[in-house]
Amino acid sequence: MAQLTAGTKAPAFKLAGNDGREHALEDTLGRKLVLYFYPRDSTPGCTTEACEFRDNLARLTAAGALVFGVSKDSLASHDKFRDKYDLNFPLLSDPEAKLHAAYGAWGEKLFYGKKLIGVIRSTFLIDEHGVITRAWYGVKVKGHVEQVLAALTGETPPSSPKKKSSSKKKAAAAN
Protein backbone atom coordinates (compact mmCIF):
# COMPACT_ATOMS: atom_id res chain seq x y z
CA MET A 1 0.00 0.00 0.00
CA ALA A 2 1.22 3.49 -0.78
CA GLN A 3 2.10 5.88 1.98
CA LEU A 4 -0.54 8.40 2.97
CA THR A 5 0.11 12.14 2.91
CA ALA A 6 -1.37 15.27 4.45
CA GLY A 7 -4.74 16.11 2.98
CA THR A 8 -5.72 12.46 2.50
CA LYS A 9 -8.93 11.20 4.04
CA ALA A 10 -7.95 8.82 6.83
CA PRO A 11 -8.96 5.20 6.19
CA ALA A 12 -11.90 4.21 8.36
CA PHE A 13 -11.43 1.61 11.06
CA LYS A 14 -13.24 -0.25 13.78
CA LEU A 15 -10.96 -2.24 16.08
CA ALA A 16 -11.18 -3.73 19.56
CA GLY A 17 -9.18 -1.94 22.23
CA ASN A 18 -7.69 -3.25 25.43
CA ASP A 19 -10.06 -0.97 27.32
CA GLY A 20 -12.96 -3.31 26.44
CA ARG A 21 -14.37 -1.00 23.77
CA GLU A 22 -14.48 -0.98 20.01
CA HIS A 23 -12.87 2.13 18.58
CA ALA A 24 -13.83 3.58 15.21
CA LEU A 25 -12.50 6.56 13.30
CA GLU A 26 -16.04 7.93 13.03
CA ASP A 27 -16.27 8.03 16.84
CA THR A 28 -13.27 10.39 16.98
CA LEU A 29 -14.69 12.98 14.58
CA GLY A 30 -14.76 16.36 16.26
CA ARG A 31 -11.41 15.65 17.99
CA LYS A 32 -7.88 15.28 16.74
CA LEU A 33 -6.42 11.78 16.78
CA VAL A 34 -2.86 10.56 17.07
CA LEU A 35 -2.88 7.06 15.62
CA TYR A 36 0.45 5.29 15.91
CA PHE A 37 1.49 1.88 14.62
CA TYR A 38 4.20 -0.08 16.40
CA PRO A 39 5.68 -3.55 15.87
CA ARG A 40 5.23 -5.42 19.14
CA ASP A 41 4.23 -5.05 22.78
CA SER A 42 6.98 -5.01 25.41
CA THR A 43 9.94 -4.76 23.02
CA PRO A 44 12.51 -2.06 23.87
CA GLY A 45 11.66 0.51 21.15
CA CYS A 46 7.91 -0.03 21.41
CA THR A 47 8.04 0.28 25.20
CA THR A 48 9.99 3.53 24.97
CA GLU A 49 7.52 4.91 22.44
CA ALA A 50 4.45 3.90 24.46
CA CYS A 51 5.93 5.33 27.66
CA GLU A 52 6.69 8.64 25.92
CA PHE A 53 3.07 8.84 24.77
CA ARG A 54 1.98 7.89 28.32
CA ASP A 55 4.21 10.53 29.93
CA ASN A 56 2.96 13.24 27.55
CA LEU A 57 -0.71 12.27 27.37
CA ALA A 58 -1.81 15.31 29.40
CA ARG A 59 0.00 17.61 26.94
CA LEU A 60 -1.47 15.77 23.94
CA THR A 61 -4.95 15.91 25.45
CA ALA A 62 -4.53 19.62 26.25
CA ALA A 63 -3.72 20.12 22.56
CA GLY A 64 -7.05 18.47 21.75
CA ALA A 65 -5.90 14.99 20.74
CA LEU A 66 -6.82 11.43 21.56
CA VAL A 67 -4.08 8.79 21.29
CA PHE A 68 -4.47 5.20 20.05
CA GLY A 69 -1.62 2.72 19.63
CA VAL A 70 -2.08 -0.08 17.08
CA SER A 71 -0.22 -3.36 16.70
CA LYS A 72 -0.89 -6.89 15.56
CA ASP A 73 -0.71 -8.11 19.16
CA SER A 74 -3.71 -9.69 20.87
CA LEU A 75 -5.83 -7.87 23.43
CA ALA A 76 -4.37 -10.15 26.12
CA SER A 77 -0.86 -9.04 25.13
CA HIS A 78 -2.01 -5.41 25.13
CA ASP A 79 -3.45 -5.87 28.64
CA LYS A 80 -0.11 -7.15 29.96
CA PHE A 81 1.76 -4.32 28.21
CA ARG A 82 -0.65 -1.71 29.60
CA ASP A 83 -0.49 -3.11 33.11
CA LYS A 84 3.29 -3.49 33.17
CA TYR A 85 3.92 0.11 32.02
CA ASP A 86 0.79 1.88 33.34
CA LEU A 87 -0.26 2.93 29.85
CA ASN A 88 -3.13 5.41 29.92
CA PHE A 89 -4.51 5.26 26.37
CA PRO A 90 -6.14 2.49 24.30
CA LEU A 91 -4.10 -0.08 22.43
CA LEU A 92 -5.97 -1.48 19.42
CA SER A 93 -5.53 -4.99 18.06
CA ASP A 94 -5.14 -5.42 14.28
CA PRO A 95 -4.07 -9.10 14.10
CA GLU A 96 -4.36 -9.41 10.33
CA ALA A 97 -2.62 -6.04 9.73
CA LYS A 98 -5.50 -4.81 7.58
CA LEU A 99 -5.46 -1.35 9.14
CA HIS A 100 -1.66 -1.32 9.01
CA ALA A 101 -1.88 -1.95 5.26
CA ALA A 102 -4.57 0.71 4.75
CA TYR A 103 -2.28 3.31 6.35
CA GLY A 104 0.88 2.14 4.57
CA ALA A 105 2.29 0.94 7.91
CA TRP A 106 2.86 -2.60 6.63
CA GLY A 107 5.37 -3.46 3.96
CA GLU A 108 8.98 -3.91 3.04
CA LYS A 109 11.50 -2.45 5.44
CA LEU A 110 15.13 -2.84 6.42
CA PHE A 111 15.78 -4.49 9.77
CA TYR A 112 19.45 -4.69 10.74
CA GLY A 113 20.35 -4.49 7.06
CA LYS A 114 17.95 -7.22 5.94
CA LYS A 115 14.84 -6.60 3.84
CA LEU A 116 11.69 -8.04 5.32
CA ILE A 117 7.94 -7.50 5.33
CA GLY A 118 6.53 -6.17 8.57
CA VAL A 119 5.29 -3.19 10.54
CA ILE A 120 6.66 0.17 9.49
CA ARG A 121 6.67 2.26 12.68
CA SER A 122 4.34 5.11 11.70
CA THR A 123 2.25 7.87 13.26
CA PHE A 124 -0.67 9.82 11.82
CA LEU A 125 -2.18 13.05 13.04
CA ILE A 126 -5.81 13.11 11.97
CA ASP A 127 -7.92 16.25 12.24
CA GLU A 128 -11.47 16.71 13.54
CA HIS A 129 -12.88 15.93 10.07
CA GLY A 130 -11.04 12.65 9.55
CA VAL A 131 -8.31 14.08 7.31
CA ILE A 132 -4.64 13.29 7.80
CA THR A 133 -2.74 16.48 8.59
CA ARG A 134 0.63 14.80 9.18
CA ALA A 135 2.12 11.37 8.51
CA TRP A 136 5.43 10.07 9.83
CA TYR A 137 6.90 6.84 8.44
CA GLY A 138 9.99 5.04 9.72
CA VAL A 139 9.63 6.83 13.05
CA LYS A 140 12.67 7.14 15.30
CA VAL A 141 11.28 6.71 18.81
CA LYS A 142 13.38 9.19 20.79
CA GLY A 143 11.88 12.67 20.51
CA HIS A 144 9.00 11.59 18.29
CA VAL A 145 6.27 12.62 20.73
CA GLU A 146 7.77 16.12 20.73
CA GLN A 147 7.39 16.17 16.93
CA VAL A 148 3.75 15.16 17.29
CA LEU A 149 3.14 17.84 19.93
CA ALA A 150 4.80 20.44 17.71
CA ALA A 151 2.52 19.47 14.82
CA LEU A 152 -0.50 19.75 17.12
CA THR A 153 0.46 23.13 18.55
CA GLY A 154 2.33 24.69 15.63
CA GLU A 155 5.47 25.07 17.73
CA THR A 156 8.97 24.08 16.66
CA PRO A 157 10.09 20.77 18.20
CA PRO A 158 13.22 20.87 20.33
CA SER A 159 16.43 19.79 18.61
CA SER A 160 17.80 16.35 19.32
CA PRO A 161 20.80 16.17 21.65
CA LYS A 162 23.01 15.09 18.74
CA LYS A 163 22.21 18.28 16.83
CA LYS A 164 22.88 20.42 19.89
CA SER A 165 26.22 18.78 20.62
CA SER A 166 27.37 19.06 16.99
CA SER A 167 26.40 22.74 17.06
CA LYS A 168 28.49 23.17 20.21
CA LYS A 169 31.41 21.42 18.53
CA LYS A 170 31.09 23.69 15.47
CA ALA A 171 30.97 26.77 17.72
CA ALA A 172 34.01 25.57 19.67
CA ALA A 173 35.89 24.87 16.43
CA ALA A 174 35.09 28.36 15.17
CA ASN A 175 36.59 29.94 18.32
What multimeric state do the chains show? single chain
Order of helices and strands: EEHEHHEHEHEEEEHH
**Overall 3D form:** globular
The value of Rg in angstroms is 17 Å
**Low-pLDDT regions:** 161-175
Give me the CATH superfamily.
Glutaredoxin
CATH class, please?
Answer: Alpha Beta
- Percent range for β-strand residues: 25-35%
The CATH topology corresponds to Glutaredoxin
How would you write the strand order of the largest sheet? 5-4-3-8-9
Keywords:
two-stranded antiparallel ribbon; single chain; alpha/beta; Glutaredoxin; disordered C terminus; 175 residues; 9 strands
Task: Tell me what the structure shows.
There is one protein chain. This protein is of the alpha/beta class and 175 residues long. It has one domain: Glutaredoxin, CATH 3.40.30. Helices cover 35% and strands 26% of the residues. The strands form three sheets. It has a five-stranded mixed sheet. It has a two-stranded antiparallel ribbon with strand order 1-2. A hairpin with a 5-residue loop joins strand 8 and strand 9. The longest helix is centred in the last third of the chain and has 14 residues. It is globular.
